[in-house]
């Protein structure tokens, strides 16, 4: 009997996802979509989303239909409609009118309460495997992913093993950003002087869409990264084979300068204290631009150039 | 001498702002020259610029709002065009410019289009509906308007002198701090919003006082028209929320000007505090806009259904319920900061509870139509368009209030689609309904129906074609404010959305044609009775346009639907009774205080943006001197003799008695 619950849920999820896919468009089928997640977190979020939509549609659709029906039937030219100019109050109707939205919100409130707790991004995933630790740092305008256990780091490319929980610690070295991989699920803020945590898992190999979901300045559109999910063995090979300069304070100093559309590259040999030094503001924050009209000494220096 | 201001402030290297700015300046100069050549300047100065008449101020507010609506709409067209083009390309707007466009679009649409439109309609309608002669503080009202205009002027000035903020319409630090935004853009934002915010706060004080203290004899709270209730709720929210905005922006200003560290990355600053504070204002702000919009729909649906509003007390309760709960939900703007399950759940549930109040309103409008005789005039079409549109917009809003769903949708194009869904479908539709509905009251002639209906259908269709695709790209993971992108799946949807903008442009053109055609045909469309729609509340009991004193004799209110009640009794008595006893009236004198204050406020704002300190002192002294001169005035009011009152009122009484009640209604 134990397995019936999850099976029903799984079936319901699949039905809903199919429905959503059909309702939306054929072009969704091959795209990164929050409704076709590749991990348990994304699935959890998506099912709550669809639950909430269905609960609300159950009252929204009839209300719209009744609105149109009333408006049409009681049109001034319809002589068959009864004119009741004094029908302005009915205790029964008032009771219903307050009850319908209240009951809906009761139901939805339950979904919200349970969902908020079960899918809290800080909560570890229920898995026997030990999570892979990843520390993410946002700079202007690129992502740095540090793999502290492997002592490697990667810019604008996030390689993860399939089927293993991922535990992210996320901070920003300059302005706010949001870490978001639509196919994996849950997003979370990257903020200077603070560490956010996020637990995700990718169940299907592939190259996905990764972006910042919070505007961070002129280079924001290039604040993109490539999340790549690979089988565990391939991940181990990749981690072992990563080449590059060591990531130390001098290297971070380069990252702190603004640059756009940086092609992915890697570091080997990471100072393990670096992430904490950034998160606890022991390193200076991102340098910011030297442009902007009316900025002292830099008039008319609207930088449109791209750093390497 | 000129602080940071140099020739480099003018964007000679950027043709788009330069040319559009030049066109705007030429157009403004052209209008000015025309006005002077026609000799209208003294009339404008006497009747409008220095007017303290709430009706004239209301009309000027609406005019300002419509102008800014067009400006913001042009920004919207530019953004949709950019995103349609910028696939694997840079489009035609570089990020430095595109970022200003979307920041200006949001700021202008919320603070300088929607707010003046809503406050303008409140200004015009509330005193008339309450059956009084003016607001509590008429000169203050003029100051409010002109300060709002100052803010709008500063925002538009940034187009050609310097730059506007490149931070989004809410300048989140640390991006908006000096380190990351060294230009004057954020400063323009800060001073424009601060100065107009003072105006809005004064409006709030003015209308709360007016509604609480100045109703016609017999008009108890539960006899006030629904629009007055929603205006009251909205102004209470203004009183509670705008000081928060002022304080928040003041802290950011201190950071930028005096090296404080409220929100900086360094020295213990906390940018998250800004997020909390700004949304403690920002979320109620949405209800400041939408509550009066609900009021407009209540009036329109009731009038054109030929019925009183269904469940009046229930509506009042729902309004106040929304008014209070809207203060307890701000955190839903950043569930994704990771506040934890308890906090997120509490704010999520609080947010969705607002839907109860809105749902109740929806059903009460529904039952207002039930048993009615519905006339499908333009305002009624806008209202029906609203009822069917807003309900799904509300649904996507509640969806975003569910934290796990928000974890996928936060800051996405889905969110953009949602708030345009409710603001366009809720507030813009209401304003257009309200303008059409009260136009005859303001100008003495109705608006032409054909072009009005065309505008409605184009706007409704254009709205769906523009924003439904944005919901879809949001689901495809597209975040907002992207200047360029390379995801092929987003492209077709963004192209459809751009096509939708074309339909909306057609709607906007129809709306302008409607206004022009109506003006040209104003003699055919003339409303001589003052009651063109078979109205139910007191504004329809006076002439169109109303005399400066609104009511020759203050009406005695005996029912929740004051004017309907009078009409019913008049009908029973075959006439509207004998002529009342006219008395001389005292009305407030016009005053240039508002205009002069705003002139100096503009100087202060501009000087502060560019660090021209001597000019700022000149502005401050001037503004203070204006206030002192006003405070020392000897004769605050002038007298309208009883004969003049009688003469103005008789003309309307005759027209009214000749036309049987309701006969002029279409």
Question: If helices are DSSP runs of H or I spanning 4 or more residues, what is the number of helices of chain B?
Answer: 19
Output the strand order for the largest sheet of chain B: 1-2
Estimate the global geometry of chain B from the Cα principal axes. Answer: globular
- The radius of gyration of chain B is 25 Å
Number of domains of chain A: 2
Any descriptors?
heterodimer, A: alpha+beta, six-stranded mixed sheet, disordered C terminus, B: 666 residues, mainly alpha, two-stranded antiparallel sheet, 19 helices, 1% strand
Q: Your description of this structure?
A:
- In chain A, 34% of the residues lie in helices and 20% in strands.
- By secondary structure, chain A is of the alpha+beta class.
- Chain A folds into two domains: 4-118, Helix Hairpins; 132-283 and 298-303, Immunoglobulin-like (Sandwich).
- Chain A has a six-stranded mixed β-sheet. In chain A, strands 4, 6, 7, 9, 10 and 11 form a six-stranded mixed β-sheet that branches.
- In chain A, helix 2 (40-73) packs antiparallel against helix 3.
- Chain A is elongated, with a radius of gyration of 26 Å.
- Mean pLDDT of chain A is 84; it is low at 25-29 and 297-308.
- Chain B is an all-alpha fold and 666 residues long.
- Helix content of chain B is 66%, strand content 1%.
- A two-stranded antiparallel sheet of chain B has the order 1-2.
- In chain B, helix 8 (271-305) packs across helix 13 (413-443) and helix 9 runs antiparallel to helix 10.
- Chain B is globular and about 75 Å long.
- The chains are: A alpha+beta (308), B mainly alpha (666).
- The interface between A and B is large, with 114 and 107 residues.
């Amino acid at each position: 009997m134990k397995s019936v619950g999850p099976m029903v849920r799984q079936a319901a999820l699949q039905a809903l996802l199919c429905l959503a896919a059909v309702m939306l468009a054929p072009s969704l089928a091959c795209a990164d979509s929050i409704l076709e997640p590749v991990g348990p977190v994304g699935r959890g979020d998506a099912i709550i989303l669809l639950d909430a939509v269905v609960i609300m549609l159950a009252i929204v659709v009839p209300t719209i239909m009744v609105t149109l029906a009333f408006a049409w039937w009681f049109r001034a030219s319809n002589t068959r409609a009864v004119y009741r100019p004094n029908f302005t109050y009915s205790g029964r109707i008032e009771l219903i009118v307050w009850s319908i939205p209240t009951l809906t919100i009761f139901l939805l409130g339950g979904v919200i309460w349970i969902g908020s707790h079960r899918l809290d991004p800080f909560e570890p995933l229920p898995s026997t495997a030990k999570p892979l630790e990843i520390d993410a740092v946002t700079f202007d305008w690129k992502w740095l992913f540090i793999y502290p256990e492997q002592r490697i780091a990667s810019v604008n490319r996030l390689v993860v093993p399939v089927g293993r929980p991922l535990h992210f610690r996320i901070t920003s070295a300059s302005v706010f950003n949001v870490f978001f991989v639509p196919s994996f699920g849950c997003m979370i803020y990257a903020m200077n002087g603070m560490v956010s945590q996020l637990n995700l898992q990718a169940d299907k190999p592939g190259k996905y869409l990764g972006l910042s979901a919070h505007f961070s300045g002129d280079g924001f559109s290039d604040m993109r990264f490539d999340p790549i999910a690979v089988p565990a063995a391939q991940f181990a090979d990749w981690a072992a084979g990563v080449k590059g300069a060591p990531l130390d304070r001098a290297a971070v100093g380069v990252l702190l300068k603004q640059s756009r559309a940086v092609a992915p590259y890697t570091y080997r040999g990471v100072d393990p204290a670096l992430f904490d030094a950034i998160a606890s503001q022991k390193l200076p924050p991102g340098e910011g631009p030297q442009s902007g009209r009316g900025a002292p000494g830099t008039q008319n220096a609207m930088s449109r150039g791209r750093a390497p | 001498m000129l602080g940071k201001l140099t020739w480099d402030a003018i964007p000679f290297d950027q043709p788009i702002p330069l040319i559009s700015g030049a066109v705007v300046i030429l157009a403004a100069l052209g209008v000015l020259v025309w006005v002077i050549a026609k000799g209208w300047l003294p009339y404008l100065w006497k009747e409008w610029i220095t007017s303290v008449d709430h009706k004239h101020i209301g009309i000027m507010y609406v005019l300002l709002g419509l102008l800014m609506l067009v400006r913001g709409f042009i920004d919207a067209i530019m953004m949709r065009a950019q995103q349609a083009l910028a696939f694997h390309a840079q489009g035609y707007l570089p990020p430095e410019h595109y970022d200003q466009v979307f920041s200006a679009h949001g700021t202008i649409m919320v603070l300088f289009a929607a707010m003046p439109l809503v406050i303008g309609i409140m200004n015009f309608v509330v005193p008339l509906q309450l059956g009084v002669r003016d607001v509590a503080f008429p000169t203050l009202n003029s100051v409010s308007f002109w300060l709002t205009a100052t803010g709008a002027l500063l925002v538009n000035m940034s187009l050609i002198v310097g730059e506007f903020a490149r931070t989004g319409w809410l300048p989140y630090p640390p991006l908006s701090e000096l380190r990351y935004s060294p230009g004057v853009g954020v400063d323009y934002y800060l001073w424009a919003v601060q100065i107009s915010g003072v105006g809005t706060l004064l409006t709030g004080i003015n209308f709360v006082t007016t509604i609480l203290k100045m109703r016609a004899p017999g008009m108890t709270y539960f006899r006030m028209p629904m629009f007055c209730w929603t205006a009251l709720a909205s102004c209470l929210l203004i009183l509670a929320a705008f000081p928060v905005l002022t304080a928040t922006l003041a802290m950011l200003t201190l950071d930028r000007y005096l090296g404080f560290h409220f929100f900086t990355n360094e020295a213990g600053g906390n940018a998250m505090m800004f997020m909390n504070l700004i949304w403690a204002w920002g979320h109620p702000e949405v209800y400041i806009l939408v509550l009066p919009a609900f009021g407009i729909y209540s009036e329109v649906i009731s009038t054109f259904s030929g019925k009183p509003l269904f469940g009046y007390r229930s509506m009042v309760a729902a309004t106040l319920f929304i008014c209070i709960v809207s203060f307890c939900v701000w955190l839903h703007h950043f569930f994704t900061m990771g506040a934890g399950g308890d906090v997120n759940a509490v704010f999520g549930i609080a947010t969705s509870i607002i839907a109860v109040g809105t749902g109740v309103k929806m059903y009460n409008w529904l039952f207002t139509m039930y048993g009615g005789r519905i006339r499908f005039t333009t305002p009624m079409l806008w209202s029906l368009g609203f009822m069917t549109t807003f309900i799904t917009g509300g649904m996507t809003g509640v969806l975003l209030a569910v934290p796990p769903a928000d974890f996928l949708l936060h800051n996405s194009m889905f969110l953009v689609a949602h708030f345009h869904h409710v603001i366009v479908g809720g507030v813009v539709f209401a304003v257009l309904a309200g303008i059409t509905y009260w136009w005859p009251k303001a100008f003495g002639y109705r608006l032409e129906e054909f072009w009005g209906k065309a505008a409605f259908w184009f706007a409704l269709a254009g709205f769906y074609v523009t924003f439904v695709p944005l919901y879809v790209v949001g689901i495809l993971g597209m975040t907002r404010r992207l200047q360029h992108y390379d995801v092929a799946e987003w492209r077709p949807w963004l192209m459809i959305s751009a096509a939708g903008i074309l339909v909306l442009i057609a709607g906007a053109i129809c709306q302008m044609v409607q206004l022009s055609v109506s003006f040209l045909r104003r003699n055919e469309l003339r409303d001589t009775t003052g009651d063109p729609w078979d109205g139910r509340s007191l504004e329809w009991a006076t002439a169109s346009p109303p005399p400066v004193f609104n009511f020759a004799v203050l009406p005695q209110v005996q029912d929740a639907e004051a004017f309907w009640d009078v009409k019913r009794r008049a009908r029973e008595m075959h006439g509207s009774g004998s002529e009342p006893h006219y008395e001389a009236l005292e009305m407030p004198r016009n005053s240039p205080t508002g205009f002069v204050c705003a002139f100096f406020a503009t100087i202060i704002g501009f000087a502060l943006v560019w660090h021209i300190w001597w000019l700022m002192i000149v502005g401050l002294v001037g503004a203070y001197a204006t206030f002192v001169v006003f405070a020392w005035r000897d004769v605050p009011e002038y007298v309208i003799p009883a004969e003049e009152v009688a003469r103005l009122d008789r003309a309307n009484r005759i027209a009214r008695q000749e036309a049987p009640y309701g006969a002029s209604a279409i």
